[in-house]
Design a protein that fits this description.
Elements: E1 4-9, E2 12-18, E3 23-29, E4 36-39, E5 44-52, E6 55-73, E7 76-93, E8 96-103, E9 109-116, E10 122-129, H1 131-135, E11 147-154
Length: about 160
């Protein structure tokens, strides 16, 4: 389930964890064994959490269902759905992930890391993706396979 544990405050710890259908956030005091859990209803695979000047930020893989229009029938377009996978950055406002942005990727992406950036109001997000290889007709079993990217992302207000 790939949990991500982090210090939420001086007296509490929290955890973002991927489930089969969504991401849950749990929190508890450091000296208490009982935790409280919230289902975010978001399909996110969290990878890393970082406390910044702008609050708690989380990087992770985002899954989004999109409809592809295929044919037109009497009622309109009939479409199939496809799952789009991106690396995304979120602000964790209490137990609610607030989407900030997607990073360039073409579907095969994940295991993001996050750290304070070199400039004020920036963070660095690292992740792997095969979107460049796939665009060139290569697939993950041929070298170079996945590339590792580092994006410097500006955070406002």
């Amino acid at each position: 389930c790939e949990p991500v544990l982090y210090v939420a405050s001086p007296t509490s710890v929290a955890c973002c964890v991927r489930t089969e259908s969504s991401m849950e956030v749990g929190a508890g005091h450091r000296d208490v064994e009982q935790w409280r859990w919230w289902n975010t209803k978001e399909v996110i695979h969290p990878s890393a959490v970082c406390l910044t000047n702008h609050g708690m930020l989380m990087a992770g893989r985002r899954l989004e269902e999109r409809v592809i229009a295929r044919d037109r029938d009497k009622k309109g377009y009939v479409g199939e759905t496809e799952t789009i996978t991106t690396t995304a950055l979120y602000h964790l406002h209490a137990q609610v992930p607030v989407f900030l942005c997607d990073l360039p990727s073409g579907g095969d992406t994940g295991y993001a890391g996050i750290a304070d950036g070199p400039e004020e109001d920036t963070v660095l997000v690292s992740y792997y993706s095969q979107h460049e290889s796939l665009r060139n007709g290569k697939f993950g079993t041929t070298l170079p396979g996945a590339q590792v990217y580092v994006a410097e992302v500006g955070i406002r207000g």
